[in-house]
Fold:
Amino acid sequence: MLYEELMLDSSLLLRFKIFRYLNQSSMQIFPVNQLSEEMDLNYQQTVIELNEIDQELKDIHPEHESIMMRAGKINLDNLSATVDEYRYHLLKQSVPFQYILYFLNEETPTIKAFCDEYFVSRSTISRKINRLKRYLKTFNLRFTYTEAGMSGDERLIRIALFDILWLGTRGLDYPLEVNQQLVDQSVEAFQSYFPLSRTYFGVRELRLFAGISLLRLNKQHFTKYDSRYNFLMKDNPYYDFASLGKIIDVPLTTRQLKGETSFIYFLSHYAPFYTIRDDSSLKQTIHDFDTRPNPVNAFVNEFRRFGKKTLFPDKPEILDDPLIVGNLLNITFAYYVFRQPFPNIMSMVFKPSQNQSYGEHVLEQNIMNFMQTAGENPDYQFISSIRVLLGKSFKHLLMPSFNQFPYAQNLRLGIAMEHNALFVRELYRFLDDLRFVQAEPYDASLKEDYDLIISSSMLLRSEKSKLPIYVLDHNYKEKDLIPLYTKLREIYGQKNRANAKS
Structure:
């Protein structure tokens, strides 16, 4: 389930979908009738929702000019907020988002006080928070209501809270009521361990995570040291276990300090963060995982040997790329530690693909076969409960490097335009640059074999109405080839779906 579906009730979600749809349109003036058809609403309901959106845009930007025009038209040039701004505005009206910020920011949060402050009943909270509650249950996390909050593995709680707040704010706002100086000092002390600290958004992500951790510490919610960290962190001078105690203003026992500090270092390894090949933290990661015998490094090396022979026989060096190695180590380490599903932003942003390409299917099946075999090895028992999740994570990481073309069928195109080089020269040059198409002059005897016929006229369709025809006017410009490319990619994806080829 996507983030907005988890966080927004039906009325807020509808307005968000309408706004996002309008925001993605390339039109300047949009008919209300068309919008109502596209969104499967009646005309009156569409107008009501548009007027609500118009007022909310005024609330976000007081200088906003109305999007509503006469004659049932919408002026899209007047959409004065970004999708992120509008989403955040709606979230501030959302009970799940309000509840999370409340129990984080309030010193002694109770369900009764929340109901009084936000004028909602307990039954309303339970109903509106239900989808998010079911999502969190997959990680063995639960909302608590006597003392408003969350229960479960504190590490997973903080990761879940970060994902929810980051996807809601996207760096637009910092909604936590926490000592900003302590936040900045914490980030400064540990940012060198995090590759994302070198990026624009990464610093903001670290500040948000630091703020969540400080607020949880203030309420005496601590993370514990995990012995599964030992091979990486124990007696390793790279990891400083003293600095945190000098920064935060919460008294910690030696055990609590060790647990909190180790969690910071775990966070630097729990996701495939590496995107910069010469990053010092990447080099340190590869070194540290290789220094002492451990099942994570052994498993990744076993997978790399398999991958060089089976997945990348023509380019085995792909699996020696430090970026690939470092990210495989991080992915595996997180599953080695948790051994269960854990919150991740990807699952809240991308829907699982129902129509994967045949090449993607081949890659996934090969990886899953490896996971099945490796899981039978006593040294890799840690993957037994999470091998499917681990396999899919490996697939997503390797997919951009995987050559799908041997498993794909190119599109066959017929060019039915006047035989004049001035008309077709630019088109052929454009198509020649596309690796997945084969273009040739249209041959009527082969019309059933073409995936698409590009023509300057609809004459062919009048002769045979079911022909797949794309009309391109004689005076087409370079920008007119962009919709054609989109259409070709769509047909190519349909032709090469795994279920279409099975």
